[in-house]
Design goal:
alpha+beta; 4 helices; 4-stranded antiparallel beta sheet; Alpha-Beta Plaits
Length: 103
Amino acid sequence: MLKVISLLKRKEDIPFEEFRKWALEEHPSLGKVLPGIRRYHMSVVLEDDPDLPYHAVSEFWFDDNDARVAAFSTPEGKAAADDAAAHCSSRVHLLTEEKIVIE
């Protein structure tokens, strides 16, 4: 299974509380409808710190990279990417394989 970790830095002109609301309440409605998605988590820092390199982390699980590419090629995937670009000054995507150490 492929896990995509995305590190998100909020745009400076977006207030922190507005960014938190977007990341935790608004954006997930776009991400959770991606075709082929198996699991989806969103985490946001608790306190504002403009010096942090990132303010949120999203995690998506797909069966494999082909499923990820297919999902983000759909209108739903493009809408989610456009929405993230509108709210984030930078995004880094890490394609990973997860190993659970403690559960």
